[in-house]
């Protein structure tokens, strides 16, 4: 199962951490894994391309691990708003996947 942990400071989403494997199909044919990977990598790439924010990114390992964190001090509030909107869009997409395939994906917000 893929576990997603979302952390917020007041209304701002500042960290998303994912780990695990969906195991919803054979290796190379796991549609839940492909969807989660596509949504998350697409959102991270959008933040990097459309803002001047240097995201803190940790990834790799056998456990399908990805952690994305906004840096603690951002001077450009426009970039912060853009990044937050893009990451919130990612979360909406992940929640849509969870609604349909909840046995393979769990999201926890704190």
From TrEMBL:
Signal peptide: none annotated. Coiled coil: none annotated. Keywords: Hydrolase, Protease, Ribosome biogenesis, Thiol protease. InterPro entries: Peptidase_Prp (IPR007422), Peptidase_Prp_sf (IPR036764). One of its GO terms (molecular function) is peptidase activity. One of its GO terms (biological process) is proteolysis. PANTHER family: HYPOTHETICAL RIBOSOME-ASSOCIATED PROTEIN, RIBOSOMAL-PROCESSING CYSTEINE PROTEASE PRP. Belongs to the Prp family. This is Ribosomal processing cysteine protease Prp. It comes from Oceanobacillus luteolus.
């Amino acid at each position: 199962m893929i576990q997603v942990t979302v952390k917020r400071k007041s209304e701002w989403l500042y960290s998303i951490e994912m780990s695990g494997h969906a195991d919803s199909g054979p290796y190379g044919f796991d549609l839940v894994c492909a969807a989660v990977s596509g949504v998350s990598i697409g959102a991270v790439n959008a933040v990097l391309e459309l803002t001047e924010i240097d995201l803190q990114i940790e990834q790799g390992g056998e456990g399908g691990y990805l952690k994305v964190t906004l840096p603690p001090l951002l001077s450009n509030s426009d970039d912060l708003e853009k990044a937050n909107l893009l990451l919130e869009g990612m979360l909406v997409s992940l929640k849509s996947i969870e609604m349909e395939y909840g046995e393979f994906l769990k999201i926890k917000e704190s």
